[in-house]
Amino acid sequence: MTFDRQDNPGSNASIHSTLSDSEVIETTPLLGSAELPKPNASKPSPWYIIIPVFLWAIATSSSLAAQLEFATKIFCNRYYQSNSGGMGGSLNDDGTIPIVDCAVPEVQSAVSQALAVISFLVFGCALVVSGYYGRLSDRKGRTVIVRVSMLGSILGLICLILTGKYQSVFGISLLYISPFFRGFLAGETILMASIQAYITDTTDASVRTLMFGRMMASVYFGFTIGPSLGSFIIKTTGSIYAVLYFVMGVYAFIGFYACIMPESNVFITENEDNNESNTACDGSGKKKYVSFLEQINVFAALTILSRTHSQHISRHALPILTAINTILTVILTPPVLLYAMLQFGWGAYEGGLFISLSSFVRLIILICLLPVLNTLFKKWCERKLSDDTHVANCSSTSAEIEEKRIYRAAMFDIWMVRSGTMIEVTGLILMGLSFNAFEFTSSAIIHGFGLITQPSLRSLLISSVNPTEVGELLGAISAVEAFAMMFSQLSINAIYSASVSTMPTLVFFACAGFAGLASLMAFLIHPTKEEVDVETSSKK
After folding, report:
1. Residue 283 lies in a domain
2. Which end of the chain is more exposed for a tag (fewer CB within 10 A), N or C?
3. Same-domain pairing of 256 and 337
4. Distance (Å, whole) CA 464 – CA 308
């Protein structure tokens, strides 16, 4: 965003004012330019954010089983207290009901409904404020969002602890208050958007896909370690509260780290006037006031999807890419474990092994396969550029070579999206056709290779807007993803519930149909080679 006002020399705002929106393109360096950062400023690296993402993934995954058991015990206590005579069997030493006595349909049904409501509230709240945080990220920086998100997560955990410690005082009301803290204070979808914006600020198009892959690899690595660490803490201390305290400590550390972490957004406008900080540029470049209600208007946040297009991919690529991302989010979590419990008699042990294996395979894909493909592409690209320069009698300028490199990088990302969605279709169909646990697990591993779509999809989305609009775009994307997760809770689970008694595999074929639609849409996107040729020819 560009603001028409006089800025003090040396401020980030004055830096921004020297670059109009028309001058800021994908190849404009966000970092490292002599006139952008202050001389004594630390140059941010994408690793500054990837390392705390890894810690966040460990902490979050370590508490998943503990929070499930925690909720089960809460509703188990309520169930037996509501029955006449209460609990008839023996109690634990601390006076709680043994978890084995909570495995009754009434308790499981209550827990399932409560978790569905909590999940719906978290994503619903995030949907409302995603546009506001997207603009805030562009104005105040990415690290601000990380700090707010950690605060919301800590407050949510405090609500859980108070519920467990003082259930006779608060009942279960704090369980349904905690998602409001987690959602309104920059929930998970908004947090991931700010993390992706940080990586975007600190990379260029040639390495962005690889760094997105490394960020996702850190998440899967954390989710591989976290559950085992959580189990170890519970076994050592004998209390699930120890895990919650551990997670709170990690979140507090990440929040403190975000206070000292170098800011990546060099286009921050430091305004002293509150009205000035709530301004934005319309399509004609004129400044207009944006009220708080407009900033939390979900539909207003989505306008960026139609008003912006990239110079290097097809004009309507941004809404198409957003639709593909929405579809893949909807089918992200099919009821795999429920189906395996029904068909193959899996329990918690087999389900845990399956999750660990799936996470490990995805980790290997991101840290081994993706870098290899990226390296092979770079070698092919450099060889192709060398051949083109030789054919042109070495008359190509550096700008023309860079344009060709960006064009081929876009082509690589587009084919990764196409290939990944086709692999998703294949894996889901094979999962539906599996007759035993081995075939089902093998099909799930094949389905995991579709993960190569995600880094390239993110790279294409971000390359479709100016660097000054990255936060706003990712805010809109987080809103769409929050809606997709809410829709997934209603649609995918409804399909499985309706067909589980007659055709339980229907849900996999339905997901394959959605993935097939995404794959077809991916073929509507293509690099705009003609525009590159015109631009390069005009420079000669």
Report:
1. no
2. C
3. no
4. 7
* Residues 148 and 185: beta-carbon distance below 8 Å: yes
Q: Containing domain of residue 111, as a range?
A: 46-82+96-206+237-265+288-300
Q: Is the pLDDT of residue 466 over 90?
A: no
Q: What is the pLDDT of residue 74?
A: 82
Contact between 429 and 508 under an 8 Å Cβ cutoff? The reply is yes
Of the candidates 7, 536, 515, which has an alpha carbon nearest to the alpha carbon of residue 269? 7
Q: pLDDT band at residue 425, thresholds of 50, 70 and 90?
A: very high
Q: What is the 3-state secondary structure (H, E, C) of 11-58?
A: CHHHHHHCCCCCCCCCCCCCCCCCCCCCCCCCCCCCHHHHHHHHHHHH
pTM: 0.69
CA–CA gap between residue 100 and residue 97 (Å, rounded): 8
The DSSP letter of residue 308 is: -
For residue 379, the domain's CATH number is: 1.20.1250.20
> In which element (H, E) is residue 357 found?
helix 348-364
The answer to whether residues 137 and 475 touch, using CB atoms and an 8 Å cutoff, is yes
End-to-end alpha carbon distance in the chain: 32
Same domain, 176 and 159: yes
Residue-level pLDDT at 296: 59
Is residue 273 domain-resident? Answer: no
Q: Which of 89-93, 173-177, 404-408 has the lowest mean pLDDT?
A: 89-93
Strands (E), 185-326: 279-281, 287-289
97 CB-contact burial (10 Å; exposed 0-12 / middle 13-18 / buried 19+): buried
Structure-block tokens of residue 278: 């709530």
Q: Per DSSP, what are the bridge partners of residue 313?
A: 527
Distance, in Å, from the CA atom of 231 to the CA atom of 126, rounded to the nearest integer, reads 30
Structure tokens at 434: 């599996």
Q: What is the pLDDT of residues 274-293, one digit of tens each?
A: 444 455 554 444 555 555 56
Is there a single domain that holds both residue 407 and residue 505? yes
**Single-letter residue type at 511:** C
pLDDT in tens, 47-102: 999 999 999 999 998 887 777 778 878 888 777 777 655 555 455 555 566 666 67
Average pLDDT estimate for 23-34 = 42
DSSP track, 424-493: HHHHHHHHHH--SHHHHHHHHHHHHGGGGHHHHHHHHHHTTS-GGGHHHHHHHHHHHHHHHHHHHHHHHH
**Predicted local distance difference test score (pLDDT) of residue 207:** 80
Mention every residue, 6+ apart, whose C-beta is less than 8 A from residue 349: none
Do residues 351 and 412 share a domain?
A: yes
Are residues 330 and 255 located together in one domain of the fold?
no
Element (H, E) at 272: none
At 512, which amino acid appears?
Answer: A
Mapping DSSP to helix (H, G, I), strand (E, B) and coil, where does residue 334 land? coil
Polymer length of the chain? 540
